């Protein structure tokens, strides 16, 4: 190692030490307490968990330090390629019995959701020995299956383990039994899926889907009808290109360690799928950002500061029905605009001939790690809290049963901060690998990520701020 390189290494570690010292100073000056936001099932699951504010602030300092270390010190291209390309084959995925069983489970789950949702509250039922399907969200199988089992549990498994939704998806299974027209829709699949995802998020926020079993079952039925119709018109490509929920699970699956390649189940390092070039259009970029913003928006509107802001905005004249869709669109545009600006000026810093569109497409998947980190921070406590009720509904979905919850220890709220930070670290690592794949010069690879890292910190700190706020019911809905 030359003397010049040694001095550079020392300067890097001095900057890391100074950053840690600043974080420690902030910790001493602003130590206090905050409340961690938990997900809610109507009004039943909203709860706050005490979290020391010093940990919240120190986590922000840790984000800065770890991001800098990964961007500055991991410069061995051979090592980066090894991490990206490593695969360990676990076995074949061509097991028709297991695939058939998975599809049967998906269809059975859909049948339970529709039955227990549409029949909720009725006293005269066409089921022998059944007196009443409960309407209580903590007892109704439709609500527990969709929100706790599917959107919390199954979605977390997609990025923590692997994506099983293509097999479990009941609408995809139904479409396989129907003839296909094999047409192409005259729109970009990414943009159509983005609009669909934002629409679903808006409906979830402004409607009582977490408390009204019949409304939830009706929504599932309508969505299923549209999805099956799309599958008949387009074919199986509808689920990979246009269906927003299938694309959500596919995107989350890129974060996971388990993947399928050439009919084989393979194990890879977490986040390795984020470095592969699979984003092909501006619509795909928009969808990645929409997924990140959607989870952020869902948490933001359930905080006390948002409630105060919403009342003020409506008080000065904004019609209440426009508040939530307007905030959804404006926030999405802001998240997308900040990302594209970072890519544009990062390109200038890197002094590269590669286009902004190409760089935006290659770096966009790394944002999924932040989305996954915030999703697990937002929903893990929610899922564990409702797990006994979900288990009871799985055993006997057509019975009122007994509702009981798990009381999580007070320290569990600290896990939310850890998950958000872990997602940020994985995102920086994935972007770092992409940079070294795209640029021949090390300095180009590092410079291209300066502004991107700042944007990632903005996304991450937004998530940290939200999980540090107590739950508050959104007003005007």
Strand order of the largest sheet: 3-5-4
Q: How large a portion of the residues is in β-strands, by DSSP E?
A: under 5%
Alpha-carbon distance between the termini? 64 Å
Order of helices and strands: HEEHHEHHHHHHHHEEHHHHHHHH
Total domain units: 1
Helix content: 55-70%
The global form is globular
Radius of gyration: 23 Å
Number of strands: 5
**Major sheet characteristics:** 3 strands, antiparallel
The mean pLDDT is 83
- Would you tell me the structural class of the helices and strands? mainly alpha
* Low-pLDDT segments: 16-40, 42-49
- Quaternary structure: single chain
By DSSP (H or I, 4+ residues per run), the number of helices equals 19
Description of the structure:
It is built from 19 helices and 5 strands. It has 477 residues and is mainly alpha-helical. It has one domain (31-467). The strands form 2 sheets. It has a 3-stranded antiparallel beta sheet, with no helix packed on it. The chain has a two-stranded antiparallel ribbon with strand order 1-2. β4 and β5 form a beta hairpin.
Compact overview of the structure:
The chain has 477 residues and is mainly alpha-helical. It is built from 19 helices and five strands.
Structure characteristics:
477 residues; two-stranded antiparallel sheet; 19 helices; single chain; three-stranded antiparallel beta sheet; mainly alpha
How would you summarize the topology of this molecule?
Layout: H1 3-29, E1 33-37, E2 48-52, H2 53-73, H3 77-85, E3 88-92, H4 96-118, H5 141-160, H6 165-168, H7 170-176, H8 189-206, H9 213-234, H10 237-241, H11 244-253, E4 258-261, E5 264-267, H12 282-300, H13 304-315, H14 320-350, H15 356-363, H16 367-395, H17 414-438, H18 442-447, H19 450-467
Antiparallel strand pairs: 1-2, 3-5, 4-5
Helix pairs in contact: 1-2, 2-17, 2-19, 4-5, 4-9, 5-11, 5-16, 7-9, 8-11, 8-12, 8-14, 12-14, 12-16, 14-15, 14-19, 16-17, 16-19, 17-19
